[in-house]
Design brief:
Blueprint (H helix, E strand, L loop, with lengths): L2 H18 L1 H28 L3 H9 L4 E5 L4 E2 L10 E2 L8 H13 L5 E14 L2 E9 L12 E5 L7 E4 L1 H7 L6 E4 L2 E10 L8 E4 L11 E7 L6 H10 L1 E5 H5 L11 H36 L1 H9 L4 H42 L10 H18 L1 H8 L3 H6 L10 H21 L5 H27 L7 H12 L1 H35 L9 E5 L4 H19 L3 E4 L11 E6 L13 E5 L2 H8 L4 H8 L3 E3 L5 E2 L2 E9 L7 E9 L11 E3 L1 H6 L8 E5 L6 H10 L11 E5 L10 H28 L1 H9 L4 H37 L9 H22 L12
Parallel strand pairs: 5-10, 7-9, 16-21, 17-20
Antiparallel strand pairs: 1-11, 1-12, 2-3, 4-5, 4-8, 4-11, 6-9, 7-10, 8-9, 13-22, 13-23, 14-22, 15-16, 15-19, 17-21, 18-19, 19-20
Helix pairs in contact: 1-10, 2-8, 2-10, 2-11, 2-23, 8-11, 8-12, 8-15, 8-17, 8-23, 10-11, 10-12, 14-15, 14-25, 15-16, 15-17, 15-25, 16-25, 17-23, 17-25, 18-22, 23-25, 23-26, 25-26
């Protein structure tokens, strides 16, 4: 028999065997298709959410060919810079004579026949009823074709007059106003005629109006959209830059020059490529392990058929070719179904992804070549995964296979020793490679080596678990002993679940550690939940009036019981003033970006700032010691006060070293960095400002209460100066996740649950003969169902425990490679995986798998 007929015969045998054992084939195909589906869905979602330069331009400058912004000076910008990303050595204020002259020169240099549409942006308060919110104001004519793409309509229509506005859905929900209602901005009531949403930031709270309808403010900026007949090249952009104008040219972005003066940071680019390399490499390994487990179990189910081939004269090579052909057939089917299912899943999950990413994706982006690569990867890994089962099947004892004997149930000691050595060596390699400069290829090698080491240990781990069977009740005892007795079946299933869980744990660890890093770097401006009110300046009578009005508003809208003065040493006002700030010390472990304000008060104010009474701190305050609210501000028991002076006869600034006592308030922080006594303030000749007040409330005010108070604190016709402003420190809130991480997390979760169910299903299906034996000796259906559930739970629990440890290795390597990133264990995810996945596997197996058995007919 030549090689080609032999290959065709092997494929024919594999196809018929797959069709004859449909249930087993479906499970094997599902095991191959599941990771392919996850990779396909993640690829399509990531490509859909990854906007092209032209799509990003549509959101920044609409359908305009060019957008320019007069800044003044000499502007420097990148080729693909969006508006606002430029730098200049000087600037001109909006709507001044210099600004108008620069605008006229710019318009004169545009191509003939250009049409210019102005847009303005600013921010400010907008109110409705008793609620007030600080919102972003966008002045643009949404009816103009040039603005299409800058805001997406949700309901209603675009504003057509100065008395009409459109608002974002987030702002509408916060103000409790809908289309047809009214809002107030700039002291003028406007009618809401529509709801529009920023496609790049869905949750933004914005107001859309005609450019002439927005109130003028010092921070207002204007951008001009231009429709040109001729393109504006990069050399023309640089000429505009020399004039002091920042320009975004669609042609220059889509046709960038070969070399720019401001390239992307190479280190950041290399880091992204390195992390992506580790992620893709681990994904490929996961596919191989999942498919390998499926084919290992499938090959065991073919023991008798393969033994018949050997008994009929087939050699080891032909037996291997049959198993490999089975891997090719089932791998091809699984890859095709996985790719098709991934595209469908991505389309269904796209709205959820957009909502979580807080932005609109681009057109549904299916890239055939990338999906073909994923499909080929599935086929190749399916074929590769069948190599070891094929070699094992070729070495199978023919007589033992035909008679149904189980073979060996022990694992040589050298196997777990080798596996643990591989796992430990992989961790050492990953940890070494994580130290800057990070070597991501070595991190991948270490992670793969560690995971393969755990795979090698899987049969030994199953055997070790069987030693505890005698301490368990009947059903778990039978399940543990069955798993230990059939390690060739249970070991691959444990490895498959381990591979899936490792991906979930790695992604979760990265996300949790990133949140921990952001939380650690967040600096609260006051004690968490503590309202602080700042009363406006003016004459003494005006200040007293503002304080009385603000106090009444705090009592009525916030439920305040009292208002405590918060005197601080700040350089506000005119004349001869001397103030003090707390500055960072020489301790390298403490980094303060800005100086901190110093309060001046007694023990009552100290307790309000610290949130508790501290007798030692009170004694230190009375002894003219600086009481700080973060030990980092101290250095060997001293604190540094930076004394600044202003006025015609002021002396030069100086630093004053003073004894200090630290009250550690932890993450709750305080409204000021330190407090000193009035006596020490007089001794240092400090000016004390009395415009801040702590509002004492029985509970943390809600956002709705704060909005009502902000609305009441706005200027009135009788008093154009607001009586006060209010801030409430609400602590750190995690930002919305990167859509790539979301796609990876979702894919890892789906693969984990799916692989657990399929691997346990394959393991249970192969134990049908044991259920038949139990039925023959008189066991009840309930006992058999409990046995099946405990078999699934045993496999899932062992796989999740090993997967948790395995998944921490790549996560540790990647996190340690990023400077300043902590390594935080995702305890919630670990708890859900270790407890929830086995319970879910037990429940699903006991519900969906039948335990009915038919006794085989005896030969007569």
């Amino acid at each position: 028999m030549t090689s080609r007929p032999a290959a065709l015969a092997a494929l024919r045998i594999a196809r018929r065997d797959a069709w004859r054992h449909k249930a087993r084939s479906v499970l094997v195909v599902a095991m191959v298709a599941l990771p392919v589906l996850a990779l396909t869905g993640a690829d399509v979602l990531a490509r859909t959410m990854q906007l092209s330069p032209a799509q990003r331009l549509d959101r920044e400058i609409g359908q305009a060919s060019v957008a320019f912004q007069p800044l003044g000076g000499r502007v420097q910008q990148e080729v693909d810079a969006t508006l606002g990303a430029q730098t200049t050595d000087s600037s001109v204020s909006f709507d001044t004579s210099a600004y108008r002259a620069l605008l006229a020169r710019t318009e004169a240099r545009l191509p003939a026949g250009s049409r210019v549409v102005p847009t303005v942006t600013t921010n400010g308060p907008v109110s409705a009823g008793d609620r007030l919110v600080d919102a972003d104001f966008d002045g643009l004519d949404l009816r103009d074709p040039l603005t299409r793409g800058m805001a997406d309509p949700v309901s209603g229509r675009a504003p057509t007059t100065a008395s009409e506005v459109a608002i974002s859905p987030s702002l509408a929900a916060r103000l409790a106003v809908r289309v047809g209602g009214q809002v107030t901005l700039g002291g003028t009531r406007r009618t809401v005629v529509g709801e529009y949403r920023d496609p790049a930031h869905w949750s933004s709270e914005g107001v859309y109006a005609l450019p002439s309808a927005l109130p003028r403010s010092p921070d207002l900026s204007s951008t001009y959209l231009v429709a040109t007949s001729d393109p504006v090249t990069w050399s023309q952009v640089q000429a505009f830059n020399a004039m002091g104008v920042a320009v975004t040219s669609r042609y220059a972005v889509e046709h960038p020059p070969r070399r720019t003066d401001y390239p992307l940071q190479g280190s950041d680019h290399a880091e992204l490529i390195g992390i992506a390399t580790v992620a893709v490499g681990l994904a490929v390994l996961e596919v191989v392990l999942l498919a390998g487990a499926a084919f290992a179990v499938g090959a065991r189910r073919q023991r008798r058929d393969l033994a018949l081939i050997s008994a009929g004269g087939g050699d080891a090579r032909q037996v291997r070719s049959v198993v490999l052909a089975g891997g090719l057939v089932l791998g091809l089917v699984g890859a095709v179904l996985g790719v098709a299912g991934g595209v469908v899943a991505a389309r269904l999950l796209l709205p959820i992804e957009e909502r979580l990413a807080d932005k609109l994706g681009g057109p549904f982006d299916v890239r055939p070549l990338e999906l073909l690569a994923v499909g080929v990867l599935g086929v190749l890994t399916g074929l590769l995964a069948s190599v070891l089962p094929a070699r094992s099947a070729a070495r199978e004892d023919v007589v033992a296979a035909l008679t149904g004997r189980r073979g060996t149930v022990t694992t040589a000691r050298r196997v777990p020793v080798a596996g643990l050595s591989m796992a430990f060596l992989g961790f050492v390699i990953a940890a070494y490679a994580a130290h800057p400069p990070a070597r991501f290829t070595l991190i991948l090698v270490g992670a793969v080596l560690s995971e393969l080491g755990f795979v090698v240990c899987s049969p030994a781990i199953v055997g070790l678990a069987g030693r505890f069977a005698r301490f368990a009740p009947l059903a778990p005892r039978l399940a543990l002993r069955d798993a230990a007795r059939h390690r060739g079946r249970t070991g691959p299933a444990v490895a498959a679940i381990m591979a899936a869980v490792a991906g979930s744990i790695a992604v979760s660890t990265y996300i949790v550690s990133e949140v921990a890093s952001e939380r650690a770097n967040y600096v609260p401006q006051a004690r968490i939940g503590q309202p602080v009110m700042y009363v406006g300046d003016g004459s003494p009578a005006q200040v007293r009036h503002n304080l009385a009005a603000a106090t009444a508003i705090a009592r009525s809208d916030l439920g305040a019981s009292t208002v405590v003065p918060l005197p601080t040493s700040t350089c506000n006002g005119s004349g001869r003033i001397q103030c003090a700030f707390l500055t960072s010390v020489t301790d390298p472990a403490f980094h303060a970006e800005t100086p901190s304000t110093v309060a001046v008060g007694d023990a009552n104010l100290l307790a309000r700032l610290a949130g508790r009474s501290d007798p030692q701190a009170v004694a230190a305050l009375r002894a003219s010691t600086v009481v700080v609210f973060d030990p980092g501000w101290t250095n060997h028991g001293t604190a540094t006060l930076s004394i600044e002076a202003q006025g015609p006869s002021s002396s030069s600034d100086r630093d004053q070293q003073l004894p200090a006592y630290a009250v550690d308030v932890g993450n709750t922080s305080a409204a000021t960095g330190a407090i000193i006594s009035p006596a020490l303030a007089r001794q240092l000749h400090l000016t004390v400002d009395h415009n801040a007040y702590i509002v004492v409330t029985p509970r943390v005010p809600t956002q709705a209460q704060q909005d009502r108070a902000d609305a009441a604190l706005q200027p009135t016709a009788a008093n154009r100066v607001p009586p006060a402003s209010l801030t409430i420190e609400r602590g750190y809130h995690p930002r919305r996740w990167n859509y790539g991480l979301l796609a990876l997390a979702a894919a890892a979760g789906i693969v984990t649950l799916g692989a657990t169910g399929i691997a346990t299903g394959l393991s249970v299906v192969e134990s049908r003969s044991d259920l038949t034996t139990l039925s023959a000796v008189g066991s009840s259906p309930r006992t058999r169902r409990l046995l099946v559930a405990n078999q699934a739970g045993t496999v899932a629990l062992l796989g999740t425990l090993v997967g948790v440890v395995s998944g921490l290795v790549p996560a540790y390597g990647i996190l340690r490679s990023r400077a300043g990133f902590p390594f935080v264990l995702p305890w919630e995810t670990i708890g859900v995986v270790v407890v929830g996945v086995p319970l879910l596997a037990m429940l699903a197996t006991s519900v969906f798998l039948t335990t009915r058995s038919t006794l085989p007919r005896r030969a007569t």
